[in-house]
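lol so apparently i was supposed to do this last week
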Amino acid sequence: MDLKIKIAEEDEELQAASWLRALSFYAYPPERKFAGELHQIMIAEEEFQLLKAQRANRRFEQDKVECNERNACLVAVASANDSLVPPINEKLYIQQGKQETRHVLVGTLDVHAVRALPGESLIGDCTNAAYLANVCSAPCARRRGVGGLLIDAARQLAREWGADGLYVHTMAVNEIAMAFYKNNGFVVEKEETSNQAHYRGRCLDGIEGRGRSVLLRDTNFGGV
Ligand SMILES: CC(C)(COP(=O)(O)OP(=O)(O)OC[C@H]1O[C@@H](n2cnc3c(N)ncnc32)[C@H](O)[C@@H]1OP(=O)(O)O)[C@@H](O)C(=O)NCCC(=O)NCCS
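anyway here it is w/ coenzyme A bound
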């Protein structure tokens, strides 16, 4: 699959990225298809508004010489004509301006970087940390390197921003994500206990505290 990783700037890219998040993080069993689809529409719209606000903030901030916060939504885009691209949800297709060829969005993530004030530590031992969120690839395009390419691009961008570490949170029970991050050089920095998760109200599958989170640090990043 021939992929291009880029910062999403166009509305249609942000919209497709919002849909991919809704499809990836709010999957419902077939017997709840109707409720699931309604919920996904709601989530995708909410996410689209947030991504547009983030873009507006980025455009405003980038004119400043000293910038304390940076963010970008990265997307992995393939040509819809690529024979290696599997049949994919219609919501993930994008036209890419006036080009004839249709494209399809097969992965996305957000990267945020924050510069601490003097004496402040933000995350781990970092004063200038970059943080990943909403990491996902299209269900039918998984295990084909899309996620890995997005991580590489995010790492590169965070370095350009002058960050000194790259972090991500995931849930301990998300074994696929844990294997994926480990494969990309991330190690556990801090792990929440079931009790802590319980008091944060992190109930999963009806089990209190099952949604406990793990903070992972990228050892391939360098820095701290
Ligand atoms: C996690 C996710 C982003 C991985 O994306 P991807 O495009 O499949 O990732 P890659 O193809 O680059 O995978 C690279 C490695 O990750 C690990 N991995 C990925 N999927 C895996 C799976 N189903 N089982 C075990 N290991 C897996 C493997 O080590 C894999 O290398 P290998 O194929 O050589 O064994 C994707 O599964 C996803 O979108 N999941 C749903 C959303 C989610 O949970 N995101 C994480 C939020 S913190």
